[in-house]
Design a protein that fits this description.
The complex is a heterodimer of chains A (242) and B (350). Chain A is α/β, with parallel strands linked by helices and 242 residues long. Chain A has 10 helices and 10 strands. In chain A, the strands form 2 sheets. A 6-stranded mixed β-sheet of chain A has the order 1-2-3-5-7-10, with helices on both faces. In chain A, strands 4-6-8-9 form a 4-stranded mixed β-sheet. In chain A, helix 1 links the parallel strand 2 and strand 3 (58-63). In chain A, helix 1 (37-51) packs parallel to helix 3 (90-100) and helix 5 crosses helix 6. Chain B folds into 2 domains: 4-199, Peroxisomal Thiolase, Chain A, domain 1 (3-Layer(aba) Sandwich), CATH 3.40.47; 209-349, Peroxisomal Thiolase, Chain A, domain 1 (3-Layer(aba) Sandwich), CATH 3.40.47.10. In chain B, the strands form 4 sheets. A 5-stranded mixed β-sheet of chain B has the order 1-7-6-4-5, sandwiched between helices. In chain B, strands 8-13-12-11 form a 4-stranded mixed β-sheet, with helices on both faces. In chain B, strands 2-3 form a two-stranded antiparallel sheet. Classes of the chains: A alpha/beta (242), B alpha/beta (350). The A-B interface holds A 6-8, 11-14, 16, 19, 45, 49, 53-55 and B 40-41, 43, 240-241, 243-244, 247, 264, 266, 278-279, 282-283, 285-286, 289, 291-292.
Chain lengths: 242, 350
C-alpha cells in the first residue's frame, strides 16, 4: 500500500540572527527518518537550492523526532533493485555532492544514525550528537555493503580497525564511544546549539578559502575510490534482488 | 448559474529602464564591499528603476525631496496608465465599463490622489467611485482588492479596477549606511492593474473566484518596516528580523482562513506570495512547508524586478494565469506582507 502522506519529507528552517545558516530536517519520524526515493529527491532539490544560495555559509542536517537521525535506506524499496541501481545509487551521488560542496555541513544527530543515515552523517564535515545517539552499519547482515560513501569515509575518521569492527562485526557505537573514536565532536543535549555555534563560525569565513581547504583535505582520501564501491554494490544487487 | 467575482485581467508595466543589479550598485556609487555584498546576494538579477540625472561619471546625482516627489507623480501616473490599458484589453473592457477604482501607492503622496489623475488622463466616467489607499506598504494590494471585490459582489453587473503603482526609486536616498543599502538593493518600480467582475465560468485567462480575505497584524513589530522622516526625506527602514517575525506568525492567518473554509494547506493548488525578498520568501516557504515550485513565480518576479511593493503579487498572479495550468475547482491562496507588521491573505477558487 502506498504511504499516504501530506507533509514533505524534508523541511528547512532558519536560525534567528544567523541568516547564513540553513537547517535541513529529515522528516519521516514515524519511519526513523529512513529515506525512500521521494525523500532522496526532496533532499537533493533542497540541498541544490542551498548550494546555489550565496548568502548561506553553512548547512546543518538533523532529523525530526527524538529517536533517530536517519535509519538509512527504506528496506521496502530494495526489491527489484538491479546492478544498474547499484552503479547509479542516488544516495551515493547525493552524499558525495554534499561532501564535496563548497559549503560546510554539520550533522546534528538527534538520535540513531544507522546504515545510510551514518553515511549521510559521514558526508558532513562535522558531527555532533544527542546522548541517545547510536551508530552502526548493518549492511553486511543484509548481504550488502555500505555503498553510499560509508566505507570510503569511515576509516579516515575512526581508523581502519575500528571501521572493520563496525562493518564486519556489526559493532554498534553509543554516543560516548563515538566521541572517543572521533566519529562525533560533541555529545550532549545541547547538540543543536553547538552545531549552530560551529556553523556560525565557519559561515563568516572566506568561502573560497573553505572551498580550497575542503579540496585539499578530500584529496587525502582518494585511495578508496567510489567506482570500486559502486561496482561492489552493483554486483550484490544483481545477485540478491534480481 | 450564480455569477462569481473573478479576476478578469491583469496588466503590468514598469517605468524607467531595466538595469542589472550590478549596474545599479555602480550607479549609486557603491564602493564598500559589505554594501556590495548586500546588492550581490539579494537574488535579484534585474530591476526597473527611474534614474534620470547622472553626473559625468555615470553616477546617479543626489536628488532633492522635490525631485523625488515629482518622480513619483510622473511615473506612478504614467506607468499605471499603461498597466490599466493592458488590463482592460485583456478583460475586453474599456474605461467606460469601470464603475469602481481602488488605487494603491506608498511611494509618494498625491492630493488629489492617483485615482483622480487616472480618471482625468484616461477618461474614466465622472461618476466612477474610487478610493486611494496610501502608505500601507507592500501588503496593500490585497487591502485594495477587498473593496473592489466587495463592490463587485454587491453589484454583480458592474466592474472594478485595482491599481497598484509604486515608484520605489522615488524613495531612494544616497548614503553609506547598511540600512539604506538594504532598501536600495531590493526595491524596483512597477505598476499593476487588475480588473474584477462577475463571470459564471472559468475561462482561459480568467482568474479564481475571490472567496474571502483574512487580515493579521503583529503590533509588537510595528517598527520592523517603517518610514523615518530625516527632516528632508522619507527613508524606508527594514529590520533584519522581518523574515523571522513573518515566519513565526505566517501560519496563524493562513490556517485561520483555511479553517473557515474547511481546508488545509495541502488543499491549496496554487500559491501567490508577495516577492518581499529572498529571506522572507524562504521563511514563508519553510514555515508553511510549501515547495519552491509553489513559489516559483514569486521568486522569478523578485529575480527580474526586485520587490515591487504593493503590486508585486499581481505580477506573480499574472504569470500563474499565463501558465494556464489552473483547473476548475483548484484552490488559490494569495499572501502579501508589509508594515504593521501585517500579513494579508486571500482565498480563491478557480
Amino acid at each position: 500500500m502506498t504511504e499516504k502522506r501530506y507533509d514533505r519529507f524534508v523541511n528547512v528552517s532558519m536560525v534567528e540572527g544567523h541568516d547564513e545558516i540553513k537547517i535541513v530536517h529529515l522528516n519521516r519520524p514515524e519511519k526513523a527518518n529512513a529515506y525512500n526515493e521521494e525523500m532522496i529527491n526532496e533532499l537533493e532539490a533542497t540541498l541544490n537550492e542551498i548550494y546555489d544560495d550565496d548568502t548561506v555559509g553553512a548547512i546543518i542536517l538533523t532529523g525530526n523526532g527524538e529517536s533517530a537521525f536517519c535509519a538509512g535506506a527504506d528496506k521496502n524499496e530494495f526489491s527489484g533493485k538491479t546492478a544498474e541501481n547499484g552503479l547509479n545509487l542516488k544516495s551515493r551521488m547525493l552524499f558525495d555532492k554534499l561532501a564535496n560542496a563548497s559549503k560546510i555541513s554539520i550533522a546534528a544527530l538527534n538520535g540513531a544514525a544507522i546504515g545510510g543515515g551514518l553515511e549521510l552523517a559521514l558526508a558532513c564535515d562535522m558531527r555532533v550528537c544527542a546522548p541517545n545517539a547510536e551508530f552502526g552499519f548493518p549492511e553486511l547482515e543484509l548481504g550488502l555493503t555500505p555503498a553510499a560513501g560509508g566505507m570510503r569515509r569511515l576509516p579516515p575518521v575512526i581508523g581502519l580497525g575500528k571501521a572493520k569492527e563496525m562493518i564486519f562485526f556489526g559493532k554498534k557505537l553509543n554516543a560516548d564511544e563515538a566521541a572517543q573514536c572521533h566519529l562525533v565532536s560533541h555529545v550532549g543535549n545541547d547538540f543543536m546549539a553547538v552545531a549552530i555555534k560551529h556553523a556560525a563560525h565557519v559561515a563568516q569565513l572566506d568561502p573560497l578559502a573553505i572551498t580550497l581547504a575542503k579540496k585539499v583535505l578530500h584529496s587525502l582520501n582518494q585511495q578508496n575510490n567510489e567506482s570500486l564501491e559502486s561496482v561492489v554494490q552493483a554486483l550484490l544487487y544483481e545477485r540478491k534482488f534480481k | 448559474m450564480e455569477s462569481q467575482t473573478r479576476l478578469l485581467g491583469i496588466g503590468t508595466a514598469n517605468p524607467g529602464k531595466s538595469y542589472q543589479q550590478s549596474e545599479i550598485a555602480e550607479m549609486l556609487g557603491v564602493m564598500d564591499t559589505k554594501i556590495a555584498r548586500i546588492f550581490n546576494n539579494s537574488h535579484i538579477k534585474t530591476r526597473n528603476v527611474c534614474f534620470t540625472d547622472f553626473d559625468e561619471n555615470g553616477a546617479v546625482k543626489e536628488e532633492t525631496s522635490l525631485d523625488l516627489w515629482n518622480k513619483h507623480r510622473k511615473y506612478a501616473v504614467e506607468t499605471a496608465e499603461k498597466a490599466i490599458e493592458n488590463a482592460l484589453e485583456i478583460a475586453g473592457l474599456t474605461v467606460n465599463d469601470i464603475d469602481y477604482i481602488a488605487c494603491v501607492t506608498s511611494t509618494g503622496f498625491l492630493c488629489p490622489g492617483l485615482s483622480a489623475h487616472l480618471i482625468k488622463n484616461m477618461g474614466f466616467r465622472q461618476n466612477t467611485q474610487r478610493i486611494d489607499i496610501v502608505g500601507m506598504g507592500c501588503n496593500a494590494g490585497l487591502n485594495g482588492m477587498q473593496p473592489v471585490t466587495n463592490f463587485c459582489k454587491l453589484h454583480p453587473e458592474k466592474f472594478g479596477l485595482l491599481v497598484c503603482s509604486e515608484v520605489c526609486s522615488a524613495l531612494y536616498v544616497k548614503d553609506d549606511t547598511i540600512g539604506t543599502a538594504v532598501v536600495n538593493s531590493l526595491f524596483g518600480d512597477g505598476s499593476t492593474a487588475a480588473v474584477f467582475g462577475n463571470r459564471s465560468e472559468l475561462k482561459e485567462g480568467v482568474g479564481a473566484e475571490i472567496l474571502a480575505f483574512e487580515s493579521f497584524i503583529i503590533p509588537d513589530h510595528i517598527d520592523a518596516m517603517r518610514f523615518d522622516f530625516n527632516g528632508d526625506k522619507y527613508e524606508f527602514y527594514l529590520d533584519r528580523q522581518i523574515p523571522y517575525v513573518l515566519g513565526n506568525n505566517i501560519e496563524k492567518p493562513v490556517k485561520a482562513l483555511l479553517k473557515k473554509h474547511g481546508l488545509k494547506i495541502r488543499d491549496i493548488d496554487h500559491w501567490v506570495v508577495h516577492s518581499g525578498g529572498r529571506k522572507v520568501i524562504d521563511s514563508i516557504k519553510y514555515n508553511l512547508d510549501i515547495s519552491s515550485h509553489d513559489v516559483r513565480h514569486t521568486i522569478d518576479v523578485l529575480r527580474e524586478y526586485g520587490n515591487l511593493s504593493s503590486g508585486a503579487f499581481l505580477f506573480s498572479y499574472k504569470r500563474l494565469i499565463d501558465e494556464n495550468i489552473a483547473k476548475k475547482g483548484d484552490n488559490l491562496f494569495i499572501i502579501t506582507m508589509g508594515p504593521g507588521t501585517t500579513v494579508e491573505c486571500c482565498l480563491g477558487k478557480f
